[in-house]
Amino acid sequence: MIGILSVLIIVHECGHFSVARFFNFQTPVFGFGLPFGPHIVVARKWGTEFRIHALLLGGFVAIPELGDESNQDAFGVPLRPFRRFPIWQRALVAFAGVGFNMIFAYFIMLFMCFWLGQPMSATAVASLPPENPIAANAGVKVDDELVDIDGVQINSPDDAVMYLTNHKATLVHVDVLRDKKPIQLAMTTNSSGKVGMGLAPKGPVTYKKVEGNFFQVAWFALVKLWTLTWSMINALGDMVSQLMHASKPAPGHPKLGVQDLHGVFAVVKIGHDMVQQDWRQLFLFTIMISMDLAIINLFPWPALDGWHLATMMLEAVRGRPMGERASGELVKWGFITLLALMALIMFNDVTALVQGKLDFKLKGDQSTDKDKGSADKSSKDGSTSPATSTSTDTSSPSTSNTTSSSDNAQSKKQETAPAK
């Protein structure tokens, strides 16, 4: 698991490095680990010093021409005179890490589809929230197993969520199994594509071969990656909303707080437990972490890739860049807040590990998974990990990665979005 996290971070930084080299940006340092403390130099090539730092919790590529040009001595290696690169080139360099994580995740998904097949799990109705009685009035009952909707097979809670979301205020026909007997129920979704069902995966994950030629399978893999990523974005939005605005959780979902923020230890522990039970879960787990790295690095927070993109957009609008002093102060305090967040996350990880809250179990029809959704948002596929790792780029003018996550490993996962 530590190796997988390391590979994903290196993939991210290789994106920045390769595109920066292509446009002839300076890349004085490529470091594995956080960019401070003792380090060893393992190689010098292409004008770059490759380092391994003592704190192996991330990685970075120093690209001074993306940041404060007055800070030429910060990297400890000689630099050429600075060039002023066009905004579009700088933007591509800043986005390259995210892009490489997306591409890497897609190729793993493509490999899964060709080699293992599509992960599938039975989808059961876990709850019928009274605030939206559409499904209950149509005759749906708790423990009904969804088979298809309008003839479209449901292979996971996400399939139902996405189908209903795309059919707002529409009459749909839902085929379910109740006590092993097929029943068809008709209902009309509301304006948000919801019918009032809390969904949960049921039973072990199986894999079904994806039929079609290369291009059909490639398109299928792209759609699956998009579906998974969109559900992760929604779930992350729910978590941030609860943490920032103290919003009420969905019925049947636990209240999230700062104690539910987890990081590297949680990812490693939960991933280890998953692989012990089904090693094939490792592929989807890796896809999720890679996409989390991409999603979080797009946040416009000082020291993240999204911050570079946001300042470039401001520069394009104003016609001039942000002042060096203001930019430097914002990045400095942004980096300090990220370090504080890492300390909190590490404390939560150790506490939860000691208390056994990070144990992941999947036996028969029982699954213990992280609550990643809310009453009105979609959540991830039942075959995925309970951890949502998020990465943060934490240095400027470098780009760097540290991994963190939000987790409530003891809550039962439910798909409650447009299906609700």
Tally of DSSP β-strands: 15
Helix content: 40-55%
Q: How many H/I helical runs?
A: 9
Secondary-structure element order, as H and E? HEEEEHEHEEHEEEHEHHHHEEEE
Q: Over all CA atoms, what is the radius of gyration?
A: 23 Å
> For the residues shown, what is the average pLDDT?
76
Ends apart, CA distance between termini: 35 Å
Low-confidence stretches: 362-420
Main sheet summary: 7 strands, mixed
Structural class: alpha+beta
**Cα shape:** elongated
- Portion in strands: 15-25%
What is the element layout, followed by pairings?
Elements: H1 2-22, E1 29-32, E2 39-45, E3 48-53, E4 58-62, H2 87-115, E5 118-127, H3 134-138, E6 145-149, E7 152-153, H4 157-165, E8 171-178, E9 181-188, E10 198-208, H5 214-245, E11 261-263, H6 264-277, H7 281-297, H8 305-318, H9 324-355, E12 362-363, E13 366-367, E14 388-392, E15 398-406
Parallel strand pairs: 1-3
Antiparallel strand pairs: 1-4, 2-3, 4-15, 5-6, 5-10, 6-7, 6-8, 8-9, 11-15, 12-13, 14-15
Helix pairs in contact: 1-2, 1-7, 2-5, 2-7, 2-8, 5-7, 6-9
